[in-house]
Structures are given as structure tokens and as C-alpha cells.
## 1
Amino acid sequence: MPALPMQAWRWSDRCCLLPILTRQGMTPPRPDHTFPRTLVYPMLSPTDTTPRSATISVLVDNESGVLARVIGLFSGRGYNIDSLTVAPVDAAGLHSRINVVTSGTSMVIEQIKAQLDRLVPVHRVADLTMDGPHVARELALIKVIGTGERRVEAMRIADTFRAHVVDTTLGSFVFELTGATDKIDAFIELMRDLGLAEVSRSGIAALARGSRVI
Amino acid sequence: MSAEWTQSGAEILLRALKDQGVEVIFGYPGGAVLPIYDALFQQNAIRHILVRHEQAAVHAAEGYARSTGKVGVVLVTSGPGATNAVTGLVDALMDSIPLVCLTGQVPTHLIGNDAFQEADTTGITRPATKHNYLVKRGEDLARVVHEAFYVARSGRPGPVVVDLPKDIVINKAPYAEPAVQHASYRPRTEPDLGQIAKAVALMKQAKRPMIYAGGGVINAGPAASDALTRLARMTGFPVTNTLMGLGCYPASDPQFLGMLGMHGTYEANLAMHGCDMLLAVGARFDDRVTGRLNAFSPDSRKIHIDIDGSSINKNVPVEVPIIADAGKALAALVAAWQASDAPSDKPALASWWRQIDTWRGKDSLKFTQNMARGGIIKPQYAIQRLFEITRARSKDVFITTEVGQHQMWAAQHFHFDKPNRWMTSGGLGTMGYGLPAAMGVQIAYPDACVIDIAGEASILMNIQEMGTLAQYRLPVKVFILNNQYMGMVRQWQELLHGSRYSETYSAALPDFVKLADSFHATGMRAQSVDELDAVINAMLDCPTAVIADIAVDQAENCFPMIPSGAAHNEMLLGPEHEESGAGITDAGMALV
């Protein structure tokens, strides 16, 4: 059975391609499980009081109340949530992935991870920020109301940012923009003088770069 | 043919409980759990103990669980039944007691409708439990019950709620055998041998070692206590226990320094402060133990064994964390210590012991009892005599307590050589815990001597359970140290708030002797020191439940004491000692 080169595959391809590969007599490459699961023995410096931002991904059972459990843990213990996304991530809908962007000192981040890890429906906790390079993307819908030169300028900037127009009237646009959080922040900032009316953001979805999976 | 839908949900539930080895349930009936009570009525395998308040059902199950090592089981109705149980659930969560609490719920089609006696039980108990479930389909019922028991007893134990809508327990449901493996929850219990080796290397180098052992050792079973004792004897290291850990190391052993922390002994706290190697086992560096964090054991290299990864580095950074079952980790340490050729520093250890003995010489728990006829009883003396007299009778003794001064005096002056004999509310500090907990212990050990050391204020918080004692003829002894004050609060008011005793006088107390009588128990009273021994003996001889009302010195304070915000080496010693530590700061006053 010919095995395919690892780089050609991403874990997200695996589920949908599995039946095709099997029919063709091929085995998909194993994902790289050398990714550090949870830092069981993190090295901490008690003097480290600088807060850092952390993107944490949590794989959970897709059962009722699981999001409340995670959010309750953050509010009950006084941790920050800067961004939160959650959705089922497997074909059967059995597991959900929660991505949380939080901030705190190293000791607090380690504590957040440990607290998440001991929740009963949690399968895995990964600190994408600490465990290596990762990609984090967000989707935003941005409504801009205006006419004349301001409308043209908004369109021009949207082109530069590769935003799509998903709804338009003679006096308004809704732009769809995907990208890193700071890119979306920058676009919104530019729209402020051009008739920015309303913003809806998804919060970030994030994955580790390379073949690593959580 | 277990998958057939031939039995009602209630019957399936009881079958699952039976398969989990449940022998006794503490509960209180109500509308939503009527079908379960009907099924209970028609079987004999599981015994039901009818309490008088749902909070007491949970505490009783805690006492049962803590004294036996089994999972305690509670059955309450929906709405107020469930909300009344919440205090007990949080108590069990804080002290890591394995419980399964079955709550009734309105039928599934009424959930969310503000139906009669409806409460969002899973919502309310989410932060009050280790995990909780709402059973929405009959086919999930048996699996969820088995899973609840697995979660309650695995890893760091804790309470689990299973919310059971009435239609689920009425309708037919299929049975499922106990599942083999949980999908996501598989706590690590085996220690990492690399970490064990690092720990032994640190222990061998230690010049001033210290072992700090907590309730996790008791939760890990009697074998963990044996392993701890072996390790201490082998190494010669001094041992201190937390409030929850008392009994996991024999108190009569010369290497035992007593309890540590806010009301711990002088030698235990100064040894914690002065040690250069600290081995923490099944203890969580609680604020009552550490005192001011930035001055906690400043010169020690720390090893921390805990089954819960979130306890590691939570309050105090440690050098060698070991995430494992305390018993398995201690056994691994014993083996690795024996296998290691590295010498330990015996002369340094001997000089460390000389230092500890000078601290011991201070006798920080000493008190003076006026032995003259009519002398006022010191609360410490009452507990000391209770200990000496029960020990002389050499019957297995189980002690529970309420919360307050009497609890600390009991921890200081009643000594335990075996685990599972001491039941107290440590983390949550729940007044009213002791009487129902004693009830649970007495159910588990019908022939043992079970004593609730109480205060006159705490005991009134669950006094209705005297009715349960009467119904089941449980000969629990309630030993009230009656100083007519909420003593611990009064003590803080004296030390921190200019002796303004705001609302801490126990006004309009009942006559406890008559109260005992009205609950079909025996009441006795000791007013002065010459009456004490006779009352204790009469209490222990009495075949029924007893309330012994011991009038004690109203002015007595619980010492030694580390005030909030102070360090271990800034202890306040009692009036028996001339010098005292640094005392109380404004910042400390703001702490609890």
C-alpha cells in the first residue's frame, strides 16, 4: 500500500478522505501525535508576573452543558475570556472544539489549563501559543453605511483587505472579512470614518501549524 | 437480557445502585422521586435512611464515605430538595469526598416551564459538584448512574449529581452493565518514575526535611497511610498533618509534630518555615495552612504529590511535581529510597531534630485547668479527658466535629493513630456538619463509638437530626463544648475588632438536657471540672444517643494562632506563653 507524504495531508482532510483512500487501497498518513498534550510538569518561575495572551484549544464531548461548564470555570475562578468559539468538529457531532483566547501570568495560564483538563467531558487541552507556531483566524461581518466618495473609499479599502461584499444596497455594504484578529481590527478602524455601523465577529478558530494535532 | 425495556426507570436505577455495591442511601422523599421511593419500598437490598433535612442527608453520606472509603449515596426530591443539598455538595467538593446525589426533577416535558418544585438543578449544582448529569432518555439512565459512580470515586474524589426527571423513572428503560472505560475521564494514578527519582535525590540531600501530608493520603486508602508511615520511619523525617489529613500518620509516633496551619502547633509551623526540603502529599497548600504566601517555607525545595494536576503550582510553585495517587507515589518513593545508594545527611537530620525538640519544648498547646471543686472546665481539658477516657476503653472511636473553636481544639487535643476516624468540614467550614456526619458513620459502623464534638451554636444548625438518631436507634454521642458564644467569631472580634462582640452571643439557648429528652435521647450536663469525668463515662456507657452539655470557659481562645496575613514564624501563642509573634496587620484583617 503506498503511503502518501505527510505534508500533503492535514488532519481535517482525514475524516472526509478516509473512505476514498480506503477504496483506492491507500492508508492516510498518521497524524503527528508528538504534540505535547498538556504540560504535565510545566516549569514555572514564581517571579514571572507579566501577563501573556494564550490561545487554548479544548476538545470536549459535545453534550449539553459543556460550554456552561467551561465558561463557568472562567467566571467562577476569575479568569479572562478575550475570545471564545465553539462548534462540533467531527462528522458524527460527538466532539466539539472550544477555542479560548485568555490572558494571565504563566502561573494563571497553567492553572487554567489544569482546571480545564480536569473537567470530566474534556478530552484534550492544548496551549497553541506555548506549544509551537499556530494559525488563528477570525471571521467578521462589517456593515458600512454611506454614499458618494466615502462609499467608494470603503470599497477600495475592502479590496485591499480582500474583504468580500456579501450584501449591498445603494446606501450600505456588508463586508465579510477573514483573517488574523489584528487585520480585522485594522479594517474596522479604517471603516470608522467611512460609515461603520455594525460589527459581528466570530471569535478565533485556531490550529497548530504543521502536522501536529491536539 | 439486560437491553430489554421491561423494568421501570426506578427499578433500573436501583439495579444499577446494587451493581455499584450500594448498601445504604440517605434521603428524603418528595413528589418528583415518588416512583423511586415506591421501588425502594418493594426491595430489601438497599437500606434507606430517612433524614430530617436534605443538607443532613449529604453530610451523613459524607460521614459514611469518609469513614468507609465507599461512595456515599443521597436521594432527594426536585426543587427545594436539591437546593437544600447544595451546601453538602460544596462541602464534599472542597474536601474531596466521593458522593452520588440523585435528585428528582419535574418530567422532561415540563422542564423550563417553572413547574411546581422545579429548579435548574444541573445549572445550580454545576459549580457545586465534580460533575453532574441530567438524564433525558431512558436508554441513558443505567450508563449515567454507572458513570456517576466512576467519576465520583476516580482521581480526586468528589460529589456527582444525577438529575432524574419523573417520567424517566416511571417509564420503562433498558439496563446496561457497568461500563469498562470512560471516554474522556481517565485520571492518571501511576507516578512518573523519573520524577520519583528526582524526589528521592532531593530527599537524600535534605538537611532539614519535612513531610506535610493531607486528606489525599486518607482518600488513597489505608495502604497509603501505611506507605507514609513506612517512608517516615525509613527516612527519619518529621511529619505534620493538615486538618483533613489527621489520622493518616499515627499521632502517637514521636516523629509526628501535630497539625500545622492557622491553629497548628508551634513546632509544626516553625519546621515548615525552617525546612530546606518539603514533601507535600495529598495536600493543597490551602490558605489556612500556608499563612502569608510570600513567606511560606521560603528556603525549601518542594516536592508535591497530588492526584489533581490543578493543585500543583496553584498557590505555591514546586520543583518536583508528581501527579499520581498518593498511595502509589508513596510506595514508589519507599522503593526508590531503598534502592538508592546515595547517603542521606544523618548528622544534619539529628541537629534538625534537636532544633525541632526545642520548639516542641515550648508546649504550644498547653493550658492550665483549675482542678479545684467547682473549677470552670477548660474546653481543651474536656477534649483531653474525652480522648484519654475513650482510649482507655480501647473501643474503635470515630470523631466528627462541627466548625469553630471546638473543631480546632478537637484537632489539637484528640489524637488519631488510624485513618478514617476523623470527619470534619475542612475546606468549606460548614457549621452543622458534625451531627449528620456522625449519623452516617454510625450507620456504617453500628457497634463503634461515634462522637460528635460540637459547639452550642453549630449543633443547632442540624439539630433536627436527633430525630433520625431516635428513629434508627443510633447511639451517637453529641459532646457540646458550650461557651454560649460563636466562639471562633468571638475570638476574631476580640483579636481584630476591639472586643466588639457583634451578634456572636448565643442568646436564648435551649436546655440541651430537655432537648435530648424530647428527642428520645439522654441528656447530661457538666457544670464544673469535678463533674466532667463522670459525665464522659456516663455518656460512653449510655446505650442511646446522648447530648452531653459541657459548660466551658467562655473567655477561652484557641491558640496558637497564625493571624490571617501573617507567616508561620509570626504565630500568636496563648496567654500561657510570655512572648508572642508579630501579630495582626491591616492587610491581614481584610483576609478571611
## 2
Amino acid sequence: MSAQDLSSAAAPAPAEEEADYNFAYLDENTKRMIRRALLKAVAIPGYQTPFASREMPMPYGWGTGGVQVTSACLTESDSLKVIDQGADDTTNAVSIRKFFERTARVATTTRTEEATIIQTRHRIPETPLTENQILVYQVPIPEPLRFLEPRETETRKMHALEEYGLMHVKLYEDIARHGHIATAYAYPVQVGRRYVMDPSPIPKFDNPKLSNCPALQLFGAGREQRIYAVPPYTEAISLDFEDHPFDPGGVDQPCALCGATGVYLDEVITDDQGTRMYVCSDTDHCEKTRADAEAAQ
Amino acid sequence: MVSSPAPTAHSPNRSHIAAANFRAILNALARPGRVETAIPFRAAPEPLFPAAAAILTTLVDTDAPYWLSPRLRTPEIDAYARFETSAAAAQDPGQADFLLGDWSEIAPIATAGRLRIGTAEYPDRSATLILTVEALAQTADGGCTVCVDGPGVETQHRFQLALSEQADAFFAFLARNRTGFPLGVDVILTAHDRLVGLPRTARVMREA
């Protein structure tokens, strides 16, 4: 047997490989269950709908909730983008993108404006989203009140009674201790003036983009077995106080690579002397700004 | 950078049809008042509309009880629904997650307060009504004009609805349903292959 024979035996033809899976990995029964939960989540904005989360071929904490939501929504004609902290080229993003290339054979892209479904871990893209897009968030802890009240039975009751005083006390204690609201990510929002919701650990800088977004926003928490949603053009107000209004924060300087302002920047330490630079967290937006600048020259 | 896998030869199968139909239903409920279309994998017997059959076959199985109105409970539709969902229709509409029928048939159940509207702690444990109406259209096409706003709507969505029986009671029911938020039922109107979603959050008004 030649080396060539060996290599072809080791790598089965892609068509055969794909035939082993149902479209987009999950079986139809599971998809129906997730789809029913998604519809109720959309009908009750910000409410955490329980669902029978499945074990996925990746560990909890790696986007199993987001993957199940994406799988239930995906159609053949979709174009999928996956980002991890704004980047298309990090481990989590690459492996989930490959997962759907293999199991659903959908087109994938890194361009925000070309994508119809964007699965995200902890960022909202800088490029404004459109009505033709669905943004799927990976959520580690869906319950915004969990660190204040560990019992699910109690937090359920608090949501039912719209009893969110505890959350305001927490934000107040931030002010008492630090002089400002020190919560910088997973900053709670109130959706449609009813349910208080954890927007997943996105930086609070992204919170304004949650509100009245033209795209449908879906949230999947795999380990915690919850799905929730913010429908398009729905208010999602960051909690605050009259005398301490919500401040999205952010770095007051342009990206060191593309020069963009008004975008979320990552701080990168460049040596052991403490030198640092600030660069776009959204890699696609950064590349596009640089390409546009080059084209203009 | 766009990388598309090699084109595949798979013909539309149940999985792909269900995925496309689900997106239509999801869009309908996420953008109330927008007309979407859906057709089931296998044609449904009359008088079950293709859109209603598509919703049934996309969302219902043994874990989600459904109820067929007397008019839809023909032996052919019953056999179709049994085969497609692997489940028999529920006898009691008060137990059903999905109710299919005309408004005139479902109105008495709603009036009697027998629809599942969820509980304060679990408002998702509520029914979805799949109502058959005479016609639905996005633009002027006869019938009355309905305006929708609320979550999912930027300013206003309008569609044309033809509903001859007990239309006043229907709009009164929708208004009442909305005031009970977060409890309530969600409504999907169907006519032939068209559907319009009216979740419990939708504010629905009929233009004179």
C-alpha cells in the first residue's frame, strides 16, 4: 500500500461524513423542542424559557446553548458568522464555525454585513445589524439575580412579582463603595419595561446596541437550560439611577491599528515595561476600516 | 472572506423544509403583522391550510399536545396529523399547547377561560392558537386593515385580514389577551400558505 492510499483511506469523502448527521447536527425532535421554546421566548421578551438542553460535542462553557439555538434556527441558505470576544479567528469561534460547516454545510463568513446568523460570545458587532440578521448569544449564567439570590424558586418568584429591588440595591452598593456603578460587563437591562435580563457578559459598552436593534436577538444557556430573546425594535434599558445615569464607558482614544473611534477596544500589553496599545475587539470591523482607508488612498 | 463548502446535491428533505418553515414562524412572531409563507413537506388534506399544516408538522410531536377543532377533525386530517406528529389530537382543548381551528370554534373555549395562559412563574406554559382566516395579505387586497405595534415593530406593521365571523369579538379578545402580559396565548393567523404572528405583546388595532 502506498502512502497515497493510506492518506485517502484515513480521510473519508466529505459527503459520506455528512451523511452521518442530521442537518445541523441535532435530531428533529430536539429541534422541535428548542423551536417551541424559542417562540415562547420571543413572545415574552426577556423571560427565561426553560428547555431540555442536550449534551453537545463540546464542553459546557464553550457555547453549547448558543450552538443549540443556532442549530434550531439554521437553514441551508444561511450565511453563518461566529465571533468570540469580537474575533473571528479565536479557538471557540473557529471550532463552532467548523462544526456547522461539517454538520450543516452552510456558507460561513467573517463579514458582519454578509451574515444572516451571527453566533457571538460576549460582543455585539460594531457594524450595525439589519432586519435580515439573527444574533445568537452564548450565555454562561442567564439569571441576572443569581449572585444576589442563589435559589431558583426565589428568583422565579422575584421575576413573577417584578420584584427587582435587590438589583437596584446591588447597583446602589456599587455607588456607595466605588462612587460609581462598577459593573462593567453583564450589566442588567430591563426588556420591554418588564423582565430584568442578563445580556450575557458583553461589555456594558455594547448595552445601548441591545435596545431597539433591527435584528432578532436570541440567548442560549446550555448548562443552565434557558433560552431568552429580545425581539427586534424592543427596548432594553440599562438599569441606573436618576443621579447616576448609565454610562457605557469605553476607552477615550482611537484603535492603534485602524484609527476607528467610538468602538470597543481591547488593551494589549506589548512588553514587560507596561507599554500598552488599544486595538479593536471586533476584528472584522478593524480589517474593514483598514481596507477602506487603503482603498481611499 | 466567504468560504462556501462545495455545493451539495441533497434534495429538499423534511429537515430542510422544517428549518425553512420554522424561520417563517419565528419571523412572524418576532415581527408581528408581517406576512410570511410556509408549506409542509407533505401536502395536507383540505380544509387544513398548508400554512397551518406547516406549523403543526414543524412544532408538534408527542411532547406538545395539539387540539383540532370539530371542523378540522375529519378522518383525513386526523390521519395526516397523527402520521406527521406521531401523536393523536388531544380531546381536551384546555390541555393543548397548540389549538387549530376557526376563531368561531375557539372563541367559546377562550370565553370559558379554558385556554392555557401559563403561570406567573412560567408564562411560557401557554397555548398557541393557529387560527384559520379567510385571507391574509400585506397590502390592500380586500378585508379590513389591521395595524400592529409593540415589540418587533419599528413604527407600525399593517396587513389585510378577512375574517367574517365574530371579528369584533376577536379584536376584543386580542386586546384582553395583551393586558394579561406576561400571561396569555400567542396567536398565529393562517390563510392558505400565508401566516401572520400576533404574540401576546402585540398591540392590534383595526382601521375603520
